[in-house]
Amino acid sequence: MASELVSIRPHRPAGLSRPRIMGILNVTPDSFSDGGKYNNFDDAIQHGIDLAAAGASIIDVGGESTRPGAERVPVEQEQLRVLPVVKALSEYGISVSIDTMNASTALAAAEVGAMMINDVSGGLSDEGMTRVAAETGLHFVAMHWRGQSADMQKKAVYKNLLRDVREELKNRVAELIVSGVRPDRIVLDPGIGFAKDGDQNWQLLANLPALGTIGYPILIGASRKKFLAALLPDDAEPVDRDPATAVISALAAQAGAWGVRVHDVAGTKAALDVWEAMQP
Ligand code: PMM
Description:
Number of helices: 10
Distance between the termini: 15 Å
Bound molecules: pterin-6-yl-methyl-monophosphate
């Protein structure tokens, strides 16, 4: 049925292509929804392979939780957690992104096969990061960020949310380009839940096309985040936020997003399959 529909389609509409799925692999004891589950090397590798098999085209490996209130992890510890996993998954032929704010971790991950740096601080946390991004030539996700997780929610104050986030992302782009990062390597992310309250997250999600007009691909990371809990019963667990996450993935596709970063890859793949089947 789906293939019949595909075969009678002359071509895909210009401009809207199916977002890539970035599968989340947190190798941390304390991330808010999957902390502690993939701490052990074999479990982490198996989960990465499973996410890729389920439809993720990039696996995002992180060794430091950035949930609101989280404290920093020593860089040596972060590297002990992530580098063996990045190396093994890359050797397996999986595209790996390194989720880090540390330039030395990004560089070490590049040396063992990472193809993308995902820096939630967009290069603001470590002044060496933009140079690493430029010198490695890796794809670079610059997320909108206003400060470390320990107290970032105090910084959720905006004169005009959309305009401020847009301007701050444009400043990141300018610094990356001045540092020598190729424009075609840059991906931007509005940083859902980072120095934003629930209403602000919804407002940004409702205005993705306006972020797209900055001129760079947009990645959305809403998966299982706390603002989704308001839609669910009080005793719901983070994993119960997966259906809402999948709907956001489909709506992000409709808004032209380049990628979605999710825990439940199968759910988002199903949502994107529906979105794709409905394209005129
Ligand atoms: N969110 C988290 C971690 N890394 N990276 C990007 N680019 N965008 C995000 O929204 C983002 C991120 C925190 O969520 P997690 O604890 O589930 O990984």
